[in-house]
Amino acid sequence: MVQKASQNQQPPPRAANLGLARPPAIYLIAILVGVALHFVGAIRFVPNLARPLGGLIVVFAAMLFIWSIRTFRSAGTPVPGNQPTTTIVSVGPYRLSRNPIYLAFSLFQVGIALGVNDAWILITLLPAIAIMSLVVIPREERYLEARFGEEYATYKANVRRWL
Known about the structure:
Layout: H1 23-41, H2 51-75, H3 100-116, H4 119-123, H5 125-148, H6 150-158
Helix pairs in contact: 1-3, 1-5, 2-3, 3-5, 5-6
């Protein structure tokens, strides 16, 4: 049985993320609020010997971010979510995570929290991840499903959202 599209059905949006919840801003605000709370009253949570691990995580996050951006560019699709996606990228870091850029942003904040040794920076990551998981990523997934159909559905079924 073939279903006809409803007359009221709207076409998919022109891009995945046209809203105000822009991922870089979400993470930047979370980091800035965490740093501000750090100066109000730090909450130490790791021994000083563990702090260099934060620097390693920041470097790893930066490398993952750069790898993810380069993979998108080599596939010929734009990185910003407010531009139309041209293809489903399933190579490089995208074979392990559907959102390696967001994973890199999250790891970056974890690394800062460890390096500065302040739980506030880690605590403010939680609302950022919640906004990403409950608002931004579902909106992007709806866009990709509408634009790429079965190709995206197959990719989504085979690759985890975060890790």
